[in-house]
Amino acid sequence: MLDLHDQLMYSNFAEAYAYNNQALNLAQNLNDKVLMSRAFGNKGNEYFDEADLDKALYYYLKSSDLIDIEEQPLIMALNFSNMANVFALKGDYPTSMEYAYRAIALCKKSPTGLNLKCHTRANLAESYVSLQQFEKAEYLLKLNVKELKTIVSPTVKAMTLSNLGTVYRHKKKNDIAINYIQGALQETEPFGLNYFIASACANLSDLYLLDNRPKLGLPFARRAHHLSMLNEDAQVQTIACRNMARIFLHLGQLDSAHHYVKYALSIAQNKGIQTLQPLVLRTYSAVLKKLKQYQPSLEALKQARMISDSIFSDDTKAESTNRLEAFSVLEAQQNLDQYYAGRLNKVKWWKYIMMITVGLVFLIGLGIYSLYRQRQAANKILTQKGIDIDTQRKLLLDLNQIKDQLFAAIARDLRAPLQSIQSVLANLNQSSKSFTQSQESVILVQLHQQTVRTITLMEDLLFTARVQMQYYQPLRQEFQLKSLTDELDKNLRLLNDGSLAPIIYHIPEDLYLYGDLTMLKMALRNLFLIMVHRPDQLAFPISLSAWRTEEGVTIRLADVQEIDAVARLTQNLTYSKPYWDISLIKTFIESYGGKLNACPEGKGYDIVVPGLA
C-alpha cells in the first residue's frame, strides 16, 4: 500500500493518501515501526500540501521518533528534507537549511539516496532564490543536472529545471528561463504529475508577464490555479492567484485583479505561508493603488516590508552563505570535478596529484628494480644450471668413453677365446680317429685356458656394467692381502699363454685390509695387464709389494730392472690390449676411498687403500 501511495502521490493525491491511511492502520496493528514511520511521513506530506504546516511538522517529527538514524538513514533523510520545506514556508530559513544539509549528508550513507539528495538540493536552491542568492542556487542546481545523468527521475529533473528557470528569470534572462520551465513541463506531462505541472505553469505565467506578454501568461496561470485546486496545493494556489491578479492588473481588469489577490492573501495568511505573504501584499498594494485606495495600499506595502525584513534579514543571508560554503568544502573533498572544489582547493589538489605521481613513479621504479633483481637471480640460476649441465655432460662423455673402451676391448678379446674353443670343439668333432693321451691333455689345457679367459672377461664386463648402472654396492670387509694376491696369481697363471711377464711377490702375511675385495682384485689384475702390454717396450718381470703407511696400505706394481737384459722377456705383441682402461681403474679405486698414483720412478703404479684400524 505504501508503494501504491508513492506511485500515485504526484498524479492522484486523494487516492494516494487513501492508500496511506490504510497502510498506517495496518502498520499500527502489526506494530512495525519502520512501516509506521513511512506512513506518518506520508501523513505529514498530506498536511503540507494543504499548507497546514504545524500538523505536517508534527507528523514528520513523529515519524522520526520511531526509527534509528543509523539503521534507517534514508527514511530519516526524507523526514529532514520534508521538515526543511516546512520551515522554509514558515520563513525560518536557518532551521530549514540545517535540516536540508543534514538530509543531504544522510543520503550519502545510502546507495539509493541519490534521488532524494537531488530532490533536497532542488528545494534548498529554491530557498536561496527566495534569499536573492542566485549564484548559490545555480551552483546547487547544476550539481543536480550533473548527477541526474546517472539516474532516471522525472520529478527531480522537473524541479531542477523549473528552479533553474526561476534563477534565470531573476538574472533577467527570460528566454533561457522559459526554455528551462518548458523543459520541466515536457518531463512531467507524460507522467501526469499534476503537482509539478501546476508549479511549472505558475512559473511560466510569471515569466510571460515579466516579458510583457500577459495574454500568453494568462492560460498558464488559469491552468496552474485549476490543478492546484484539484491537488489542494495551497502554495501553488497562492502563486497562481497572485499571478492572475498581476495579469488582470496589467490588462486593466481591476475587479478581477482585486478578487484574485484577496484570495491569494487569504490563503497565505490562513495557512501561515510566511515566505509568500510579502509578494502577495505587494501585489495587493499595487491593486489598491490602482483603485485609488491609497491608505490601505500604503499599509499593505508597510506590512510586506516588515514581514520581508523579518524573514530575509542580513543575519539570515549571512548564515545561509556560511552553510553553503561549509557544504561546498564538503562537496569539494568528496568530488574533485565539482565547480567550487576546483576554485577552493586547486593548489591543494595539485599538490596531492604531484605526491601521487611521485609515489607512482617510486612504485614503478621499485617494481622495475625488483624485476631486475629477479631477472638477475634467474640468470645466475640459469648460469649455474648451465655449468652443472656442462659438468654432467663432460662426466657422461668420460663415462661413455670408458664404456666404449671397455666394450671395444671385450669385443676383441672375448672373440679370441671363444674362437679357440670353437676351433678345438670343431677338431674334436671332425676327427674320425681317437686322440692320444698327450693330445687330449694339450686340448684340455687349451680348452681350460680359453674358458678361464672367457669367464674372466665376462666377470669384468658384468662387474663394470653393474657399477656403471649403479646396481653394485661395495662390500667392505676385512681380508688378508696375501690371500688376495695368491688368488690373483692363480688367476693370472690360467690367463698366461706364455706372453705374460712373471710376478715377483713381496706381500707380508700379517697385512690385513678393510675394503671391497672383489674391486681390488679386479683393479690389480687389470693394472698388471696394462703394465705388461705397454707398447714398444720390453717386458720386465713385475714386482708386487705392499707396506703400511700413515694413509693406510700402499700396494706397488713396478718393473724389476736389476736383472740381466738377456733374461728380459720380449713382449708378445700378438696378445690383445688389457680389459680396463687406467682411468676406469682409478675411478673404481677412488670410489671406496683409495688412491692410484704413479711410482716415483715412473716404472709402475702405487695403490693406496685404507688399512685395518
Care to describe what's here?
The protein is α+β, with helices and mostly antiparallel strands and 613 residues long. It is built from 23 helices and 7 strands. The strands form 2 sheets. The chain has a 5-stranded mixed β-sheet. It has a two-stranded antiparallel sheet with strand order 1-3. A hairpin with a 4-residue loop joins strand 4 and strand 5. Helix 11 runs antiparallel to helix 12.
Structural topology:
Elements: H1 2-8, H2 13-30, H3 33-49, H4 53-65, H5 73-90, H6 93-107, H7 114-130, H8 134-147, H9 154-170, H10 174-188, H11 194-210, H12 214-231, H13 234-251, H14 254-271, H15 277-290, H16 294-311, H17 314-334, H18 339-344, H19 346-430, H20 437-468, E1 476-480, H21 481-495, E2 503-506, E3 512-516, H22 517-532, E4 542-548, E5 553-559, H23 582-591, E6 595-598, E7 604-609
Parallel strand pairs: 2-4
Antiparallel strand pairs: 1-3, 4-5, 5-7, 6-7
